[in-house]
Design goal:
Blueprint: H1 2-72, E1 82-88, E2 94-103, E3 110-119, E4 122-133, E5 141-144, E6 147-149, E7 155-156, E8 184-188, E9 191-193, E10 200-201, E11 203-207, E12 211-212, E13 218-219, E14 223-225, E15 229-230, E16 236-238, E17 241-242, E18 271-275, E19 283-284, H2 293-298, E20 313-320, E21 325-331, E22 339-344, E23 348-353, E24 357-363, E25 366-371, E26 375-383, E27 395-400, E28 404-406, E29 410-419, E30 426-429, E31 438-448, E32 450-451, E33 458-462, H3 466-469, E34 478-486
Parallel strand pairs: 5-8, 5-31, 6-9, 7-10, 7-33, 8-11, 9-12, 10-13, 11-14, 12-17, 14-18, 18-19, 20-24, 23-25, 24-26, 25-27, 26-28, 27-29, 28-30, 29-31, 30-32, 31-33
Antiparallel strand pairs: 1-2, 2-3, 3-4, 4-34, 15-16, 20-21, 21-22
Length: about 500
Protein backbone atom coordinates (compact mmCIF):
# COMPACT_ATOMS: atom_id res chain seq x y z
CA UNK A 1 0.00 0.00 0.00
CA UNK A 2 2.74 2.42 0.80
CA UNK A 3 4.46 1.77 -2.51
CA UNK A 4 1.20 2.49 -4.38
CA UNK A 5 0.78 5.84 -2.63
CA UNK A 6 4.33 6.79 -3.55
CA UNK A 7 3.73 6.02 -7.21
CA UNK A 8 0.53 8.05 -7.20
CA UNK A 9 2.31 11.01 -5.66
CA UNK A 10 5.08 10.76 -8.24
CA UNK A 11 2.55 10.69 -11.07
CA UNK A 12 0.79 13.77 -9.67
CA UNK A 13 4.09 15.63 -9.38
CA UNK A 14 5.05 14.71 -12.90
CA UNK A 15 1.68 15.85 -14.20
CA UNK A 16 2.09 19.18 -12.37
CA UNK A 17 5.54 19.73 -13.82
CA UNK A 18 4.30 18.78 -17.29
CA UNK A 19 1.40 21.20 -16.99
CA UNK A 20 3.76 23.94 -15.86
CA UNK A 21 6.13 23.29 -18.73
CA UNK A 22 3.24 23.31 -21.19
CA UNK A 23 2.02 26.59 -19.74
CA UNK A 24 5.55 28.04 -20.01
CA UNK A 25 5.77 26.85 -23.60
CA UNK A 26 2.37 28.27 -24.48
CA UNK A 27 3.25 31.55 -22.78
CA UNK A 28 6.56 31.67 -24.61
CA UNK A 29 4.87 31.00 -27.95
CA UNK A 30 2.16 33.55 -27.15
CA UNK A 31 4.75 36.14 -26.16
CA UNK A 32 6.81 35.44 -29.26
CA UNK A 33 3.68 35.68 -31.41
CA UNK A 34 2.70 38.93 -29.68
CA UNK A 35 6.20 40.31 -30.07
CA UNK A 36 6.26 39.38 -33.73
CA UNK A 37 2.81 40.83 -34.25
CA UNK A 38 3.84 44.00 -32.41
CA UNK A 39 6.94 44.29 -34.57
CA UNK A 40 4.95 43.67 -37.71
CA UNK A 41 2.36 46.23 -36.62
CA UNK A 42 5.14 48.72 -36.00
CA UNK A 43 6.62 47.90 -39.40
CA UNK A 44 3.21 48.30 -41.03
CA UNK A 45 2.69 51.60 -39.20
CA UNK A 46 6.12 52.73 -40.28
CA UNK A 47 5.47 51.71 -43.89
CA UNK A 48 2.12 53.52 -43.80
CA UNK A 49 3.93 56.58 -42.47
CA UNK A 50 6.52 56.28 -45.24
CA UNK A 51 3.80 56.06 -47.87
CA UNK A 52 2.08 59.07 -46.35
CA UNK A 53 5.33 61.03 -46.13
CA UNK A 54 5.92 60.28 -49.81
CA UNK A 55 2.43 61.59 -50.56
CA UNK A 56 3.19 64.68 -48.49
CA UNK A 57 6.40 65.26 -50.48
CA UNK A 58 4.42 64.85 -53.70
CA UNK A 59 1.98 67.44 -52.39
CA UNK A 60 4.98 69.74 -51.93
CA UNK A 61 5.94 69.25 -55.58
CA UNK A 62 2.39 69.94 -56.76
CA UNK A 63 2.09 73.05 -54.60
CA UNK A 64 5.38 74.30 -56.02
CA UNK A 65 4.16 73.65 -59.56
CA UNK A 66 1.02 75.65 -58.80
CA UNK A 67 3.10 78.49 -57.38
CA UNK A 68 5.33 78.53 -60.48
CA UNK A 69 2.35 78.32 -62.82
CA UNK A 70 0.60 81.26 -61.16
CA UNK A 71 3.22 83.62 -62.55
CA UNK A 72 4.51 81.59 -65.48
CA UNK A 73 2.40 83.45 -68.03
CA UNK A 74 4.53 86.51 -67.32
CA UNK A 75 7.77 84.55 -67.29
CA UNK A 76 8.47 85.49 -63.67
CA UNK A 77 9.08 82.62 -61.27
CA UNK A 78 8.08 82.87 -57.60
CA UNK A 79 10.83 81.03 -55.71
CA UNK A 80 9.46 81.54 -52.17
CA UNK A 81 9.75 78.51 -49.87
CA UNK A 82 6.48 76.67 -49.20
CA UNK A 83 5.83 75.31 -45.69
CA UNK A 84 2.66 73.45 -44.72
CA UNK A 85 2.66 72.25 -41.10
CA UNK A 86 -0.73 70.49 -41.25
CA UNK A 87 -1.13 68.76 -44.58
CA UNK A 88 -4.58 67.15 -44.89
CA UNK A 89 -6.01 64.52 -47.19
CA UNK A 90 -8.97 65.22 -49.47
CA UNK A 91 -11.24 63.90 -46.72
CA UNK A 92 -9.82 66.39 -44.22
CA UNK A 93 -7.72 63.85 -42.29
CA UNK A 94 -4.43 65.18 -40.92
CA UNK A 95 -1.56 63.51 -42.79
CA UNK A 96 1.64 65.30 -41.85
CA UNK A 97 3.73 68.25 -43.03
CA UNK A 98 5.85 69.25 -45.99
CA UNK A 99 8.22 71.97 -47.08
CA UNK A 100 9.41 72.80 -50.59
CA UNK A 101 12.22 74.97 -51.90
CA UNK A 102 12.45 76.31 -55.46
CA UNK A 103 15.68 77.09 -57.27
CA UNK A 104 15.86 78.95 -60.61
CA UNK A 105 19.53 78.60 -61.66
CA UNK A 106 20.70 81.20 -64.19
CA UNK A 107 17.03 81.93 -64.95
CA UNK A 108 17.29 79.19 -67.56
CA UNK A 109 14.65 76.84 -68.93
CA UNK A 110 14.18 74.75 -65.79
CA UNK A 111 13.33 75.10 -62.12
CA UNK A 112 14.55 72.66 -59.46
CA UNK A 113 12.04 71.81 -56.71
CA UNK A 114 13.06 69.94 -53.53
CA UNK A 115 10.13 68.77 -51.37
CA UNK A 116 10.40 67.11 -47.93
CA UNK A 117 7.38 65.27 -46.49
CA UNK A 118 7.19 64.22 -42.82
CA UNK A 119 4.61 61.92 -41.20
CA UNK A 120 4.96 60.37 -37.70
CA UNK A 121 8.71 60.95 -37.73
CA UNK A 122 9.20 59.37 -41.17
CA UNK A 123 10.75 61.73 -43.74
CA UNK A 124 11.04 61.35 -47.51
CA UNK A 125 12.56 63.81 -49.95
CA UNK A 126 11.66 64.23 -53.61
CA UNK A 127 13.47 66.35 -56.19
CA UNK A 128 11.76 67.38 -59.39
CA UNK A 129 12.80 69.42 -62.40
CA UNK A 130 10.14 71.70 -63.83
CA UNK A 131 10.81 72.54 -67.46
CA UNK A 132 9.67 75.92 -68.73
CA UNK A 133 8.57 75.96 -72.35
CA UNK A 134 7.52 79.01 -74.37
CA UNK A 135 6.18 79.13 -77.90
CA UNK A 136 7.65 82.63 -78.17
CA UNK A 137 11.14 81.15 -78.01
CA UNK A 138 10.47 77.67 -79.39
CA UNK A 139 10.08 78.22 -83.13
CA UNK A 140 12.17 79.97 -85.74
CA UNK A 141 8.84 81.08 -87.21
CA UNK A 142 5.36 80.75 -85.71
CA UNK A 143 2.68 82.29 -87.93
CA UNK A 144 -1.04 82.34 -87.29
CA UNK A 145 -2.30 82.93 -90.82
CA UNK A 146 -4.38 81.02 -93.39
CA UNK A 147 -1.47 80.86 -95.85
CA UNK A 148 2.15 81.84 -95.19
CA UNK A 149 4.19 82.53 -98.33
CA UNK A 150 7.96 82.17 -98.70
CA UNK A 151 9.62 84.00 -101.59
CA UNK A 152 12.67 83.22 -103.70
CA UNK A 153 15.99 82.55 -101.91
CA UNK A 154 14.53 82.52 -98.41
CA UNK A 155 16.74 80.52 -96.03
CA UNK A 156 15.36 79.28 -92.70
CA UNK A 157 17.91 78.06 -90.20
CA UNK A 158 21.58 77.49 -90.88
CA UNK A 159 23.28 74.32 -92.12
CA UNK A 160 25.03 72.48 -89.31
CA UNK A 161 28.56 71.83 -90.55
CA UNK A 162 29.74 69.85 -87.50
CA UNK A 163 32.75 67.69 -88.42
CA UNK A 164 33.79 65.80 -85.30
CA UNK A 165 36.25 63.45 -87.03
CA UNK A 166 37.87 66.27 -88.99
CA UNK A 167 37.61 64.56 -92.36
CA UNK A 168 36.22 67.66 -94.05
CA UNK A 169 32.74 66.15 -94.43
CA UNK A 170 29.86 67.32 -92.20
CA UNK A 171 28.56 64.63 -89.85
CA UNK A 172 24.94 65.24 -90.82
CA UNK A 173 23.96 64.32 -94.41
CA UNK A 174 21.41 67.13 -94.76
CA UNK A 175 23.26 69.51 -92.41
CA UNK A 176 20.69 69.04 -89.63
CA UNK A 177 21.31 67.11 -86.37
CA UNK A 178 19.55 63.82 -85.71
CA UNK A 179 17.89 65.17 -82.56
CA UNK A 180 14.79 67.11 -83.59
CA UNK A 181 14.97 69.26 -80.43
CA UNK A 182 18.21 70.75 -81.74
CA UNK A 183 16.79 71.76 -85.10
CA UNK A 184 15.13 74.94 -86.20
CA UNK A 185 11.37 74.54 -86.67
CA UNK A 186 8.65 76.42 -88.52
CA UNK A 187 5.01 76.34 -87.40
CA UNK A 188 2.06 77.57 -89.47
CA UNK A 189 -1.51 77.33 -88.28
CA UNK A 190 -2.63 77.23 -91.94
CA UNK A 191 -0.85 76.42 -95.21
CA UNK A 192 2.79 77.02 -96.01
CA UNK A 193 3.28 78.00 -99.64
CA UNK A 194 6.75 78.18 -101.13
CA UNK A 195 5.79 80.67 -103.84
CA UNK A 196 9.39 81.39 -104.81
CA UNK A 197 12.27 79.18 -105.89
CA UNK A 198 15.32 78.06 -103.89
CA UNK A 199 13.61 78.19 -100.49
CA UNK A 200 15.75 76.21 -98.05
CA UNK A 201 14.70 75.06 -94.58
CA UNK A 202 17.39 73.51 -92.37
CA UNK A 203 14.99 72.05 -89.86
CA UNK A 204 11.42 70.78 -89.48
CA UNK A 205 8.16 72.22 -90.77
CA UNK A 206 4.71 72.08 -89.14
CA UNK A 207 1.58 73.10 -91.00
CA UNK A 208 -2.03 73.06 -89.84
CA UNK A 209 -3.09 72.85 -93.49
CA UNK A 210 -0.81 71.74 -96.33
CA UNK A 211 2.69 72.44 -97.61
CA UNK A 212 2.81 73.57 -101.23
CA UNK A 213 6.33 73.67 -102.65
CA UNK A 214 8.48 73.14 -105.71
CA UNK A 215 11.38 70.93 -106.72
CA UNK A 216 13.96 73.75 -106.58
CA UNK A 217 13.38 74.19 -102.84
CA UNK A 218 13.99 71.73 -100.01
CA UNK A 219 13.08 70.89 -96.44
CA UNK A 220 16.29 69.53 -94.90
CA UNK A 221 14.40 67.87 -92.07
CA UNK A 222 10.93 66.46 -91.44
CA UNK A 223 7.41 67.66 -92.20
CA UNK A 224 4.39 67.48 -89.87
CA UNK A 225 1.10 68.26 -91.61
CA UNK A 226 -2.49 68.01 -90.43
CA UNK A 227 -3.61 66.69 -93.83
CA UNK A 228 -1.25 63.69 -93.54
CA UNK A 229 -3.39 60.50 -93.73
CA UNK A 230 -3.00 56.72 -93.74
CA UNK A 231 -5.43 53.90 -94.45
CA UNK A 232 -6.09 50.91 -92.18
CA UNK A 233 -3.21 48.99 -93.77
CA UNK A 234 -0.75 51.71 -92.85
CA UNK A 235 -0.34 52.97 -96.39
CA UNK A 236 0.11 56.72 -96.65
CA UNK A 237 -2.70 58.19 -98.73
CA UNK A 238 -1.72 61.86 -98.38
CA UNK A 239 1.62 63.26 -97.18
CA UNK A 240 0.25 66.81 -97.01
CA UNK A 241 3.19 67.96 -99.16
CA UNK A 242 2.73 68.80 -102.84
CA UNK A 243 4.55 70.35 -105.80
CA UNK A 244 7.48 67.92 -105.79
CA UNK A 245 9.05 69.52 -102.71
CA UNK A 246 11.87 67.28 -101.38
CA UNK A 247 11.62 66.51 -97.65
CA UNK A 248 14.41 64.53 -95.95
CA UNK A 249 16.72 64.72 -92.97
CA UNK A 250 19.14 62.17 -94.45
CA UNK A 251 18.86 59.68 -91.59
CA UNK A 252 17.58 56.09 -91.96
CA UNK A 253 15.24 56.32 -88.98
CA UNK A 254 11.83 56.01 -90.59
CA UNK A 255 8.91 53.67 -90.02
CA UNK A 256 7.86 50.70 -92.09
CA UNK A 257 4.32 52.05 -92.19
CA UNK A 258 2.80 49.42 -94.49
CA UNK A 259 4.65 46.53 -92.77
CA UNK A 260 6.12 45.05 -95.95
CA UNK A 261 9.55 44.53 -94.39
CA UNK A 262 11.30 47.46 -96.05
CA UNK A 263 11.30 51.22 -95.68
CA UNK A 264 10.91 52.86 -99.06
CA UNK A 265 9.14 55.77 -100.72
CA UNK A 266 5.73 54.17 -100.12
CA UNK A 267 6.30 54.67 -96.39
CA UNK A 268 6.62 58.46 -96.87
CA UNK A 269 9.93 58.80 -95.00
CA UNK A 270 10.42 61.99 -92.96
CA UNK A 271 6.75 62.96 -93.37
CA UNK A 272 4.39 62.84 -90.42
CA UNK A 273 1.04 63.97 -89.05
CA UNK A 274 0.20 67.09 -87.05
CA UNK A 275 -2.70 66.25 -84.74
CA UNK A 276 -4.55 67.69 -81.75
CA UNK A 277 -3.12 65.05 -79.42
CA UNK A 278 0.23 64.22 -81.02
CA UNK A 279 1.77 60.92 -79.94
CA UNK A 280 3.63 58.26 -81.90
CA UNK A 281 5.58 59.99 -84.64
CA UNK A 282 3.05 62.85 -84.83
CA UNK A 283 3.49 66.36 -83.47
CA UNK A 284 0.86 68.14 -81.41
CA UNK A 285 -0.90 71.27 -82.63
CA UNK A 286 -0.11 74.41 -80.67
CA UNK A 287 -1.52 77.88 -80.11
CA UNK A 288 -0.11 81.13 -78.74
CA UNK A 289 -2.02 83.32 -76.31
CA UNK A 290 -1.65 87.10 -76.88
CA UNK A 291 0.72 88.78 -74.44
CA UNK A 292 -0.61 90.70 -71.45
CA UNK A 293 0.28 94.37 -72.02
CA UNK A 294 -0.96 95.39 -68.57
CA UNK A 295 1.77 93.23 -67.04
CA UNK A 296 4.51 94.99 -69.00
CA UNK A 297 3.08 98.40 -68.12
CA UNK A 298 3.16 97.46 -64.43
CA UNK A 299 6.78 96.25 -64.65
CA UNK A 300 8.20 99.04 -66.80
CA UNK A 301 11.75 100.10 -65.90
CA UNK A 302 11.18 103.50 -67.57
CA UNK A 303 7.92 104.57 -65.93
CA UNK A 304 7.50 107.76 -67.98
CA UNK A 305 7.22 105.73 -71.21
CA UNK A 306 3.93 104.15 -70.11
CA UNK A 307 2.13 107.32 -69.05
CA UNK A 308 -1.47 108.24 -69.79
CA UNK A 309 -0.62 110.05 -73.04
CA UNK A 310 0.35 108.09 -76.14
CA UNK A 311 3.75 109.29 -77.38
CA UNK A 312 6.18 107.90 -79.93
CA UNK A 313 9.73 107.26 -78.68
CA UNK A 314 12.95 107.40 -80.67
CA UNK A 315 15.53 105.26 -78.90
CA UNK A 316 19.13 104.24 -79.30
CA UNK A 317 20.31 101.39 -77.09
CA UNK A 318 23.91 101.21 -75.90
CA UNK A 319 25.52 98.34 -73.98
CA UNK A 320 27.39 99.38 -70.84
CA UNK A 321 29.24 97.75 -67.90
CA UNK A 322 31.12 95.34 -70.16
CA UNK A 323 27.93 94.36 -71.94
CA UNK A 324 25.95 93.39 -68.84
CA UNK A 325 23.44 96.27 -68.97
CA UNK A 326 21.85 98.73 -71.39
CA UNK A 327 21.68 102.51 -71.56
CA UNK A 328 18.68 103.94 -73.39
CA UNK A 329 19.23 107.29 -75.10
CA UNK A 330 16.01 109.03 -76.19
CA UNK A 331 15.99 111.42 -79.18
CA UNK A 332 13.44 113.87 -80.52
CA UNK A 333 12.99 112.11 -83.89
CA UNK A 334 14.29 109.35 -86.14
CA UNK A 335 17.20 111.52 -87.30
CA UNK A 336 18.88 110.79 -83.94
CA UNK A 337 20.47 114.24 -83.64
CA UNK A 338 18.90 115.88 -80.56
CA UNK A 339 18.89 113.97 -77.28
CA UNK A 340 15.98 114.17 -74.86
CA UNK A 341 17.04 111.97 -71.95
CA UNK A 342 19.18 109.01 -70.91
CA UNK A 343 18.06 106.00 -68.85
CA UNK A 344 20.19 103.25 -67.28
CA UNK A 345 18.50 99.85 -67.21
CA UNK A 346 19.19 97.01 -64.75
CA UNK A 347 20.66 93.76 -66.06
CA UNK A 348 17.13 92.35 -66.47
CA UNK A 349 14.78 95.03 -67.75
CA UNK A 350 11.43 95.69 -69.39
CA UNK A 351 10.82 98.82 -71.46
CA UNK A 352 7.16 99.45 -72.24
CA UNK A 353 6.19 102.31 -74.57
CA UNK A 354 2.66 103.63 -74.91
CA UNK A 355 3.00 104.52 -78.56
CA UNK A 356 5.34 103.59 -81.41
CA UNK A 357 9.00 102.74 -80.80
CA UNK A 358 11.75 103.68 -83.28
CA UNK A 359 15.02 102.02 -82.35
CA UNK A 360 18.51 100.83 -83.17
CA UNK A 361 21.70 100.04 -81.26
CA UNK A 362 23.22 97.35 -79.07
CA UNK A 363 21.86 95.47 -76.05
CA UNK A 364 23.62 94.43 -72.86
CA UNK A 365 21.98 92.13 -70.32
CA UNK A 366 18.46 90.84 -70.82
CA UNK A 367 15.93 93.33 -72.16
CA UNK A 368 12.35 93.14 -73.46
CA UNK A 369 10.97 96.12 -75.41
CA UNK A 370 7.17 96.23 -75.68
CA UNK A 371 5.04 98.67 -77.68
CA UNK A 372 1.32 99.40 -77.45
CA UNK A 373 1.43 99.86 -81.24
CA UNK A 374 4.35 99.43 -83.69
CA UNK A 375 8.12 98.90 -83.45
CA UNK A 376 10.36 100.33 -86.20
CA UNK A 377 13.88 98.99 -86.70
CA UNK A 378 15.83 102.00 -87.94
CA UNK A 379 19.15 100.15 -87.73
CA UNK A 380 20.85 97.03 -86.40
CA UNK A 381 19.87 95.68 -82.99
CA UNK A 382 22.18 92.94 -81.74
CA UNK A 383 23.99 92.20 -78.48
CA UNK A 384 27.13 93.71 -77.01
CA UNK A 385 30.24 93.58 -79.22
CA UNK A 386 28.19 92.52 -82.22
CA UNK A 387 27.16 89.19 -80.68
CA UNK A 388 24.10 87.85 -82.50
CA UNK A 389 23.02 84.84 -80.39
CA UNK A 390 21.67 84.85 -76.82
CA UNK A 391 23.52 83.45 -73.81
CA UNK A 392 23.13 83.44 -70.02
CA UNK A 393 23.89 87.18 -69.93
CA UNK A 394 22.30 88.44 -73.15
CA UNK A 395 18.81 87.95 -74.56
CA UNK A 396 16.15 90.26 -75.92
CA UNK A 397 12.59 90.46 -77.19
CA UNK A 398 10.71 93.04 -79.26
CA UNK A 399 6.96 92.68 -78.73
CA UNK A 400 4.57 94.87 -80.74
CA UNK A 401 0.82 95.11 -80.27
CA UNK A 402 0.48 95.77 -83.99
CA UNK A 403 3.42 95.50 -86.45
CA UNK A 404 7.18 95.27 -86.70
CA UNK A 405 8.66 97.49 -89.43
CA UNK A 406 12.05 96.66 -90.94
CA UNK A 407 13.33 99.96 -92.37
CA UNK A 408 17.10 99.78 -92.82
CA UNK A 409 18.34 98.50 -96.17
CA UNK A 410 21.05 96.34 -94.60
CA UNK A 411 19.66 95.09 -91.30
CA UNK A 412 20.54 92.60 -88.54
CA UNK A 413 18.23 92.01 -85.55
CA UNK A 414 18.58 89.49 -82.70
CA UNK A 415 16.00 88.08 -80.29
CA UNK A 416 12.34 87.15 -80.05
CA UNK A 417 10.31 89.17 -82.57
CA UNK A 418 6.57 89.27 -81.88
CA UNK A 419 3.84 91.10 -83.80
CA UNK A 420 0.32 90.52 -82.59
CA UNK A 421 -1.48 92.47 -85.33
CA UNK A 422 -4.97 91.59 -84.14
CA UNK A 423 -6.45 92.95 -87.37
CA UNK A 424 -4.59 90.35 -89.44
CA UNK A 425 -2.75 91.10 -92.69
CA UNK A 426 0.95 91.94 -92.68
CA UNK A 427 2.63 91.63 -89.30
CA UNK A 428 6.29 91.93 -90.37
CA UNK A 429 6.48 94.85 -92.81
CA UNK A 430 9.47 95.86 -94.97
CA UNK A 431 7.62 98.38 -97.15
CA UNK A 432 9.08 101.47 -95.45
CA UNK A 433 12.59 102.90 -95.30
CA UNK A 434 15.65 102.50 -97.52
CA UNK A 435 15.97 100.27 -100.57
CA UNK A 436 16.32 96.70 -99.36
CA UNK A 437 19.54 94.73 -99.67
CA UNK A 438 20.31 92.23 -96.90
CA UNK A 439 18.34 91.00 -93.88
CA UNK A 440 19.68 88.83 -91.07
CA UNK A 441 17.34 87.83 -88.24
CA UNK A 442 18.94 85.84 -85.40
CA UNK A 443 16.17 84.45 -83.23
CA UNK A 444 12.50 83.60 -83.41
CA UNK A 445 9.63 85.26 -85.24
CA UNK A 446 6.10 85.00 -83.85
CA UNK A 447 3.24 86.69 -85.65
CA UNK A 448 -0.47 86.92 -86.13
CA UNK A 449 -0.54 87.47 -89.88
CA UNK A 450 1.97 87.31 -92.72
CA UNK A 451 5.14 89.12 -93.87
CA UNK A 452 6.52 90.93 -96.88
CA UNK A 453 10.18 90.50 -95.96
CA UNK A 454 10.75 89.10 -99.45
CA UNK A 455 11.52 92.72 -100.40
CA UNK A 456 15.02 91.93 -99.11
CA UNK A 457 16.68 89.97 -101.95
CA UNK A 458 19.28 88.48 -99.58
CA UNK A 459 17.80 87.21 -96.32
CA UNK A 460 18.62 84.53 -93.78
CA UNK A 461 16.51 83.64 -90.76
CA UNK A 462 18.87 82.02 -88.25
CA UNK A 463 17.42 80.02 -85.37
CA UNK A 464 18.70 80.81 -81.88
CA UNK A 465 18.19 77.76 -79.66
CA UNK A 466 19.68 79.68 -76.72
CA UNK A 467 16.48 81.72 -76.47
CA UNK A 468 14.79 78.57 -75.14
CA UNK A 469 17.36 78.41 -72.36
CA UNK A 470 17.81 82.09 -71.59
CA UNK A 471 14.56 83.87 -72.25
CA UNK A 472 14.20 87.65 -72.09
CA UNK A 473 12.31 89.07 -69.08
CA UNK A 474 8.56 88.57 -69.00
CA UNK A 475 8.32 85.94 -71.74
CA UNK A 476 5.34 83.68 -70.85
CA UNK A 477 6.08 80.01 -70.23
CA UNK A 478 4.24 76.75 -69.61
CA UNK A 479 5.64 74.73 -66.66
CA UNK A 480 5.83 70.94 -66.90
CA UNK A 481 7.01 68.68 -64.03
CA UNK A 482 9.47 66.02 -65.17
CA UNK A 483 12.38 63.93 -63.89
CA UNK A 484 11.11 63.32 -60.36
CA UNK A 485 13.46 61.28 -58.18
CA UNK A 486 13.68 60.37 -54.50
CA UNK A 487 16.81 61.69 -52.81
CA UNK A 488 16.12 60.83 -49.18
Amino acid sequence: MQSLNLDTKNEKGFALITTYLVMVFISTVAFATWAKSFTEIRQVDREVARVRSYAAAEAGLQNSLAQIGANAYTGFINTNTINVANFQSVSGQAVGSFSATIQYPNQADWVIVRAIGTVDGETRTLEGRVFLDSNLSKYLVYANTPDFGSGTNAQYGEPDLTDKDGNGVPDYPERVPANGDQRAALYFTGDWTLSGTNVQLYGDSNAGGTINGNSSSKVHGDSYVSSFTQNLSGQVTNTGVSGGLPVTDGFADDLDRNHDGIVDASDAPDRHALTATGGGDAHKTETIVPIDHSFYQAHNNIASFSGATTKDRFLKLESINNGTATRVVEYTNANYTSQVATYILPANAIVYVKGDVYMKGEIGGRVSVVSSDDIFFEGNLTYAAGQTKADSTHSTAFLAKDKLYFKAGDLSVSGVLYAENSAGGTAFDASQGAAKQKLRLYGNRVMNGSTNLGLYPDRVYAYDSQLKLYRPPGIPVVPALRLVRETG
